[in-house]
Records
---
Amino acid sequence: MSEGVEWGLHCCVTLAWLGDDRPVSTARLAAFFDLPTAYLNKRLQALVRAGILASTPGARGGFRLARPPETITLMDVVVAVEGPDEAFRCMEIRRQGAGAELPERDFRQPCGIATAMRRAELAWRRELAGQTLADILAAAPAASADRTRRWFALERTGS
């Protein structure tokens, strides 16, 4: 999984903590997390395409949550940033090398590795689909939310 998933999740949590309809620019989010603006913007645009964030163009534009935190799962963010493909892709290497000459009947059943990896992937996806941004917000220390709100409030007031 790429770092973009972490970036996307933290930005979503930050936008939820700010909780207003005023968009936050990529530059401000990047500065808050000390991330490269251009790369962060690509991840945020992926979240817009997925309907997780909404974007407002222009000098006072930026990003805000498009849906309530209760309706955004961690899996939604993972799929938006990484795509829907499975993490493990069986390439059937057992059909190569010494296995290249074996009869087709030897490959009718998926191998134990592919089966185990698929089972683990499904459990991982189920777990992420069962957790929302609201769950993350509820588990986070109140001090983190307060610190985030203060940092962004200073920027808005020019202090």
Note: Helices lie at 3-18, 26-33, 37-49, 74-82, 112-129, 133-139, 142-157.
---
Amino acid sequence: MIGYVLGEHGRQSARLATQAGSRSGPSTEDLFGIEDRVDRLTLIVAAMWSLLEEQGLTEEQLHERIRALDEADGVPDGKMTPQPTTCRSCAAKVGAGLAACQFCGTAVAATAQPGPFDGV
């Protein structure tokens, strides 16, 4: 399932990174790639919800879970915002997604296994 969701995400990211300095914004091709990924995610979410409905879950339960996940990061804004960690060496806040502290270079400890939607 992860490979289906991500598609050619790795290659697209590498291509976009090399082209970033040569243009001012995303091309039409880039936007179509993003649209394709959103379409795949929409299909996956619809399939997951239909399975959950078959198991007896309700829309009210879904809305409650969405609200709880939205508020888990401390900001009820309709999205999940990754939180920074604290560097174990210098106690600085390390931005979410960074492999090492931007101030002292200490590697960030891996706290969890990657989830199925990481990088999407």
Note: The helical segments are 2-6, 9-19, 28-54, 59-71.
---
Amino acid sequence: MTPKELILEWVRRFNRGDIEGLAALYAEDAVNHQVVMAPLHGRSEIQRMFAVEFGRASMTCIVEAIYESGEWAILEWSDPNGLRGCGFFLVQNDQIVRQRGYFDQLSFFRKHGLPVPDSYLG
């Protein structure tokens, strides 16, 4: 699977709220570093993050563009509330081994009517 194909599958699983399916796309020792929090190390930490996030809000990823270069895919996205962001995914052996994401977390909380938590993952 190409990096672009893998990220399109990531988007499908994200939009279904398929937490286990999303986690399965990551290597066991993957690193996910969203700009709003410390890096997460390993599939289980990444799965926990998705569980927390989908527990907070109903989320939809609208693909604005996907770029691919070698082992990398870059996803530009928006959501129905007007939030925008991008993610960089390093894909090796048909799994995400590194992800870096950029978006405005405060806007996410405000657009979903959520209080700002003391700790990102509660």
Note: The helical segments are 3-16, 19-24, 43-56, 105-111.
---
Amino acid sequence: MNIQARHLSPLILGLDISDINRAMELSRQVREYVDVVKVGLELFSAEGPEAVRKLREEGFEVFLDLKMNDIPNTVSRALRVLAELHPLMISIHTIGGKEMLDASLDTLRSWEARNSSRRPMLVGVTVLTSLDDFSLKEIGIRDSAEEEVSRLANMACRSSLDGLVVSPLEVSRVRREVGDEMTLITPGVRPAGSLSGDQKRTATPEEAISWGADFLVVGRPITEARNPHKAARDIFFEVKNTRSG
């Protein structure tokens, strides 16, 4: 795992909401078990860079999950701006191609050298957890989700990205293929008995960790729970017990 992330809790809180005050309240409730919070499109669209700044001021690391995908020059310019917010991680879509991945990492490395400051980890999104084999065929991808994830993950590995976002159903295969140094972040994690919602490739926290995930992104099972603190605690200890077992 990347050295920046090695000492952090494996539980990332997905703040898929638009209200920064609610996001701050939820983050504070689970602080005991969460070091990293995810700021995605909804919160960033509503609050902009200020969401990242406020959460960092509260002592949280931020996974800025914007899943960027554009021509290499456009993504590189955006990354130069976003790096100034000092998130722990920034996500880009691997389907943007190797040239985009290479240019993105070069941009962050150059930013780090100029600023003498820790650069954000660059993590590549493979196949969204809302897609299954049928969904991929509808958009013209003939491979299965597992095969497509594997192909994209290996391309990202050749570009020396710091991490990958993969569903729990592919994390075991990806871990075997990319080795232990690549940080694997797993969304689509649902405690036993939870509804999967719009996500199709899901697993429990215990399964995701035992299959090779480093971080679990958990949103609604915590943010919509009657007691978010208890929900985060239960998942945290499920992960801890799985790792120690």
Note: The two ends are 20 Å apart (CA to CA).
